[in-house]
From TrEMBL:
It comes from the Bacteria. It holds the Pfam family 4HBT_3. Residues 43-131 form the Acyl-CoA thioesterase-like N-terminal HotDog domain. It comes from Nocardia bovistercoris. SUPFAM superfamilies: Thioesterase/thiol ester dehydrase-isomerase. This is Thioesterase family protein.
Length: 299
């Protein structure tokens, strides 16, 4: 069987677990005993215009590293990918991909691994992962209650197919996804502060699987559209580098994503995304450096 056939055979064709299909990886024969190899599929649901969504690739890379770490030592199964630092070397096409994983360190508190997402024989996304134990107790200090409803209000903007956002951000076909209207003046061809916030929720089958729900939270830390859209820069923002943190396992229900920036330059901008679960706890964070949007390729 080809890699594509192996990956497709492992994917569960269930409508209520579309992100679970991304995480359904099949181990491939080893070329090097120190390197784990996995086949997977990222289908067109997880694309922005024609490009595979960056957060999805990071989360899937974390899933591959988790599999190889457990294979290395089953006692490490409780370790979770608490940090991921990703460099995007190229843009893969939706479809079959491979993941190559190497373990860099095994410790009692921290483990380190590197994952490379490969397609067509090329390494396209390189992620350095740190594994540790997630927080479970109440925090000692937090930013406090944010003025954002736990669930999307009636006037929130959906990403259903046929809508302005849904025809570009296809993730709305694989998760429940809504944008805060008050923070999105670009949708009415107006300008405003470079900040956005949204709500995202996994489908029932994904929410029921604790591991998939955890990777879904990591993916959600890259879910906001680029905040320069509110400044009139509408389009795809190629990520130069992104760091993602996973803080705790999400409670059931909606995740809230708040995106802000420190500076939008002429060429690049930074974007921070904070992910809160239905209880208000911080479950994931990200910071990325990206190129200022200049239109959507292929859209």
């Amino acid at each position: 069987m080809t890699t594509e056939q192996i990956a497709e055979a492992a994917v569960a064709k269930t409508d209520d677990a579309p992100f679970g299909r991304v995480c359904a990886l099949t181990e491939l024969p080893a070329v090097d005993p120190d390197t784990g190899r996995y086949a997977g599929v990222i289908d067109e649901v997880w694309t922005i215009a024609t490009k595979v969504h960056g957060g999805t690739m990071v989360a899937a890379s974390a899933a591959a590293a988790s599999n190889w770490l457990r294979a290395h030592d089953p006692a490490l199964a409780e370790m979770a990918p608490i940090a991921a630092s990703s460099d995007f070397l190229g843009a893969p096409e939706p479809g079959a991909v491979e993941y190559e994983v190497r373990i860099r360190k095994v410790g009692r508190q921290i483990c380190l691994a590197d994952t490379t997402l490969v397609q067509g024989g090329r390494g396209l996304v390189r992620t350095a992962l740190t594994f540790g134990r997630l927080d479970a107790a109440d925090p000692v200090h937090t930013v406090g209650e944010l003025d954002m409803p736990a669930a999307p209000p009636a006037d929130a903007i959906g990403f259903e197919p046929g809508s302005r956002m849904g025809d570009i951000v296809h993730v709305g076909r694989g998760a429940d996804l809504f944008l805060d209207r008050a923070w999105s003046p670009f949708l009415e061809d107006r300008r405003g502060a470079p900040r956005l916030r949204l709500w995202i929720r996994p489908r029932p089958g994904d929410a029921a699987d604790a591991a998939v729900a955890m990777y879904f939270a990591m993916m959600s830390a890259d879910m906001s559209p680029p905040v320069p859209m509110n400044l009139g820069h509408f389009g795809w923002a190629p990520t130069v580098q992104m760091t993602t943190y996973l803080r705790r396992r999400p409670a059931p229900g909606w995740l809230r994503v708040i995106a802000t920036t420190n500076e939008v330059g002429q060429r690049m901008f930074d974007e921070d995304q904070l992910v809160l679960d239905s209880t208000g706890a911080v479950v994931a964070q990200s910071r990325q450096l990206a190129l200022v949007p200049s239109g959507f390729p292929g859209a």
